[in-house]
Amino acid sequence: MPVLAPIGRVFLAFLAATGRLGTFAMTGVSHCARPPFFPRLIGHQMVEIGYFSLPVVGMTAIFTGMVLALQSYTGFARFNAESAIAAVVVLSITRELGPVLAGLMVAGRIGAAMAAEIGTMRVTEQIDALTTLSTNPFKYLVAPRLIAAVAMLPCLVVFADIIGVFGGYLISVYKLGFNPNTYLKLTWDFLEPLDVISGLVKAAVFGFLVALMGCYHGYHSKGGAQGVGLATTNAVVSASILILAFNYIITALFFGT
Amino acid sequence: MSATTPKIALRDLKKRFGDKRVLTGLDLVVAPGESIVVIGGSGTGKSVLIKCIMGLLQPDEGSIRIDGEEVVGMRGSEREKVMRKFGMLFQSAGLFDSLTVWENVAFGLIQAQGMARDEAKAVAHEKMAQVGLGEEVGALSPAELSGGMKKRVGLARAIATDPEIIFFDEPTTGLDPIMGDIINDLIIDCVKELGATALTITHDMASARKIGDRIAMLFGGEIIWDGTVDEVDRADNPYVEQFINGLAEGPIQAATA
Q1: C-alpha angle A208-A45-A137 in degrees, rounded to nearest 5
Q2: N or C end of chain B, less CB within 10 A?
Q3: Yes or no, beta carbons of B83 and A134 under 8 Å apart
């Protein structure tokens, strides 16, 4: 059937791409666990991913917390349930919005940079040069980025959680007239350790996905500047989609029952 | 190991990309200390040949022996041991643009041999002096260098670990004739000083005549002529004749090159 052939080709291409990505991920992870390690490179990547992402993650978190408080008030005021605002803000930020928004921001900032840097190294023969100098590109390029991203995303999410809750506090206290002590007490009372832990687990997984997509698309880029541009786009898009998909999966695992 | 064991021995080497057969059964033997130049048009598989020998590409069929040892399919620490015998000057120099010039030159010493940075820096300066670069260049980044200087740095990096076999991929491409000749002289000096075996691929006949002890012509995926530099002008081969004289008319059609 002429209709089935293109569908089959697309399906086979999808399976092949999934297999390539899986192999790449396993190779990358195996190099994270085997010496030699490159502490200088890991440290450099930690600063790039963690420290330099603080402003963008912080800005995103504070405005999200502020909007959340404002919108919750608008809705809950209709049912005289304004006291639930603190719970809505803290649970939404720690469970969902903190990790997801930090993940998406880092995907845009770091995933794109990784794909562009490694992609440029690929098309300018720098990755081949690494191999000829007896240095495994997975160990030198991929493993430090995976380790740094998995370590730094949870730190960023802790920061985003605090800033996001603070954004909600600012609006609730200074615009909506809540008592500061009552707001903080309600926030603390509603917060369970699992809320924070689930967010941190998500953050570690999202960090892995962002670094994996950036490295994978950069490593396999070809065709010069156009290829590097395509790799960058693909890294951001695929990381963003995977973050949203894995967010659902992890949420279902933690809170599905 | 016998004194007559070839440094590099290729037998029936085949490599294809999809439907395109690039190497179709290539045979080539290089003696220790010999400088061989493989000539051929663009797209005839010269770079693929080098990449197969260096393990950057896996041949589909055939044998590659380095010092009598089969290296096709070799992996892990054994492969790394063989890679330590190699040095390579890339067509685009392949310098790491995140590192300074001296760090580029010392890369193999630090990463592959575990040499201390201070000691490696001294060796890097020594090798840079050998290719006519002063210590002040060591602190520059590759982006600040001219094409000729990049080639010099690439050459210094290729010889930094005192390799037994050095590959030169189009060493004079993109350089003016005078700079090209300077690079040729540096290559000859460096190879002689190290007592290394050299395999150069180029389509620059002036470079081939100057660098090589022997010239081999690659066409249609195999070596179609092989002889000394003196013999190349008297070669009774219409393909070689057309190529070395740069004639549009002849058995080599532009579409196949």
Answers
A1: 75
A2: N
A3: yes
Chain B residue with the nearest C-alpha to that of A139: B111
Instruction: Decide which of B143, B162, B181 is a domain's last residue.
Output: B162
Mean pLDDT of chain A: 93
* Same domain flag for B135 and B207: no
> Cα separation of B107 and B111, whole Å?
6
A148-182 b/e (C-beta count within 10 Å ≥ 16 → b): bbbbbbbbbbbbbbbbbbbbbbebbbeeeebeeee
Same domain, B69 and B100: no
Give me the domain span that covers residue B101: 94-162
pLDDT in tens, A177-227: 999 999 999 999 999 999 999 999 999 999 999 999 999 999 999 888 899
Note whether B40 and B65 are same-domain residues: yes
| A116 DSSP 8-state letter | H
Residue of chain B whose alpha carbon sits nearest to that of A127? B94
Q: How far is A111 from chain B (nearest CA, A)?
A: 18
How many structural domains compose chain B? 2
Domain identity same for B174 and B52: yes
In a domain, B252, yes or no: no
Nearest to A133 among B55, B91, B111 (CB): B111
Residue owning tokens 């200087």: B149
Q: What is the pLDDT of residues B104-138, one digit of tens each?
A: 999 999 988 889 999 999 999 999 998 888 899 99
The band of B254, judged by pLDDT with boundaries at 50, 70 and 90, is low
SS3 assignment, position A141:
helix
Mark yes or no for CB contact B111/A126 under 8 Å.
no
Last residue of a domain, one of B138, B162, B186: B162
- With contact defined as beta carbons under 8 Å apart, do B149 and B184 qualify? no
